[in-house]
Write a structure and sequence with these properties.
Shape: globular
Strand content: 5-15%
Strand order of the largest sheet: 3-2-1-4-5-6-7-8
Structural class: alpha/beta
Largest sheet: 8 strands, mixed
Radius of gyration: 19 Å
CATH class of the largest domain: Alpha Beta
Number of domains: 2
Number of strands: 8
Order of helices and strands: EHEHHEEHEHEEHEHHHHH
Distance between the termini: 44 Å
């Protein structure tokens, strides 16, 4: 059996993106956030993205209307009670994710699947918060969700085969290419991507080259669609700093240690695209 009703917790960039692709694939979707301002902003972003798709001829007006018909929003967790797949896209704090899943476990049905969009935290530790950890899995999306084709499916030792297969079916239906990764710090993508990003920042710090030229080297020389410093701006310097600290500690590897330049930029509020300034002006 496939999922029918999907609850998305967190209406920020990742959350509203996941809600968008899920509704566009024909799922009934409820997007939740803690207040009306945030959830409304998420809905506005989805409408805008669908409108641009229609303008560019990539989305039909009928498909846009159907996706919006399937999309609902709420500020009450209780409204997610009927969802059979819950995907959280909230800040990268273990205790916050555990608390959320603990609450959902008391609201949702006994067969509901809990997916976390974490980019680095232990799936097993998050799963320990619910009564049946076999129903917890990692679903790591990439920003912007409606454009990026990868979905990193992360399984911990206790994840059931049925849950893994159902999530893979969901990934195919929303148009993603899925990879399956075991629960290890940073998984496959963050472990490699953050390591590259930290070294690129050290190169700027040491005066090796400008951010633009370092990014151009990786884009033209290695065919990366986005250079490591522009990507860091897009993800958020504060987000990547926290991931770097976590991976450095968990893997005991100084390659992930955030450089002093990064710490200084975060302290100054230069967080990248979301604040208008990072390694680039946005």
């Amino acid at each position: 059996m496939q999922f029918e009703h999907i609850g998305i917790i967190g209406a920020g960039a990742m959350g509203h993106g996941i809600a968008h692709v899920s509704a566009a694939a024909g799922y009934r979707v409820t997007l939740y956030d803690v207040d009306e301002v945030r959830v409304s902003a998420g809905i506005v972003k989805i409408r805008s993205t669908l409108d641009k798709g229609v303008e560019k001829g990539k989305v039909t007006p009928e498909a846009r209307a159907e996706a919006l018909r399937l999309l609902d929003s709420t500020t009450r967790l209780a409204d997610l009670a009927s969802a059979d797949l819950l995907i959280e896209a909230i800040p990268e704090r273990l205790e916050l994710k555990q608390s959320l899943f603990r609450q959902l476990d008391g609201i949702c049905g006994p067969s509901a699947v809990y997916a976390t969009n974490t980019s680095s935290l232990s799936i097993a530790q998050i799963a320990s918060a619910v009564s049946d950890p076999s129903r917890v899995i990692g679903a790591h999306f990439f920003n912007p969700v409606h454009v990026m084709t990868l979905l990193e499916v992360v399984v911990h030792e206790g994840t059931s085969d049925e849950v893994r297969e159902k999530l893979l079916q969901y990934g195919v239906r929303i148009g993603k290419e899925c990879i399956v990764v075991n629960d290890a710090p940073g998984f496959a993508t963050s472990r490699l991507g953050v390591c590259l990003g930290m070294e690129a920042i050290r190169m700027v710090e040491q005066g090796v080259a400008s951010p633009a030229d370092i990014d151009k080297a990786m884009s033209l020389g290695y065919r990366h669609p986005v250079g490591p410093l522009r990507l860091t701006d897009m993800v958020g310097l504060d987000v990547r700093l926290a991931i770097g600290e976590y991976l450095s500690r968990k893997l005991n590897n100084p390659a992930f240690e955030p450089p002093a330049l990064m710490r200084r930029m975060v302290a100054e509020g230069k967080l990248g695209q979301k604040t208008g300034r990072g390694f680039y002006e946005w």
